[in-house]
């Protein structure tokens, strides 16, 4: 809940559910990343909707209790506590309400590799660049996107980044 509040306040790019899932599993709770991502999206939607409607803690808990009867009592208590402590800090401007986002770039990792051989070809000696992008989607979920490029593809990729950098410098 606290990471979601930080994300909604633009203090962090998103909630890294894979890392959070690992921490939760280490504490002895069985959950998978997919289920945790769904929970994160629901709580994020809940907090952003409550902020947009300026709900008090009691209004949020009452509305939540009326809408969802299967939510465990301790989950409602956590939501109540976090919203009571930090809910007022979420600010939703009119521009943010009317803007759709495509995600936010968080990190980029790359490595240069050479494929030496395969089961169908004994001598490849084929260089490639492997790239992993860490991206926070609009709901705050952080995911990794990986791809490989040939050297000519990488040169084109690099050229396009140089062009973007040049355009950004003029802004």
UniProtKB/TrEMBL annotation:
Family (UniProt): Belongs to the COMM domain-containing protein 6 family.
Function according to Swiss-Prot or TrEMBL: Scaffold protein in the commander complex that is essential for endosomal recycling of transmembrane cargos; the commander complex is composed of the CCC subcomplex and the retriever subcomplex. May modulate activity of cullin-RING E3 ubiquitin ligase (CRL) complexes. Down-regulates activation of NF-kappa-B. Inhibits TNF-induced NFKB1 activation.
One Pfam family this sequence matches: COMM_domain
Record InterPro entries: COMM (IPR017920), COMMD4/6/7/8 (IPR047155)
A GO molecular function held by the record: NF-kappaB binding
Alphabetical list of PANTHER family matching this protein: COMM DOMAIN-CONTAINING PROTEIN 4-8 FAMILY MEMBER, COMM DOMAIN-CONTAINING PROTEIN 6
Name recorded for this polypeptide: COMM domain-containing protein 6
Phylogenetic lineage: Eukaryota, Metazoa, Chordata, Craniata, Vertebrata
Stretches assigned to the COMM domain: 104-171
């Amino acid at each position: 809940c606290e990471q979601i509040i930080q994300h909604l306040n633009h203090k962090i790019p998103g909630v890294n559910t894979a890392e959070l899932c690992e921490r939760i599993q280490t504490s002895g709770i069985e959950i998978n990343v997919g289920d945790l991502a769904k929970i994160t999206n629901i709580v994020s939607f809940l907090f952003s909707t409550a902020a947009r409607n300026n709900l008090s803690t009691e209004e949020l808990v009452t509305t939540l209790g009326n809408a969802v009867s299967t939510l465990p009592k301790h989950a409602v208590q956590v939501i109540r506590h976090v919203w009571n402590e930090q809910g007022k800090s979420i600010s939703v401007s009119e521009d943010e309400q009317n803007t759709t986002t495509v995600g936010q770039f968080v990190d980029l990792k790359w490595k240069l590799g050479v494929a030496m051989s395969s089961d169908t070809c004994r001598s490849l000696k084929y260089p490639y660049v492997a790239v992993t992008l860490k991206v926070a989607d609009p709901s705050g979920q952080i995911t990794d996107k990986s791809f490989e490029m040939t050297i000519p593809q990488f040169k084109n990729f690099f050229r396009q980044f140089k062009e973007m950098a040049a355009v950004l410098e003029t802004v």
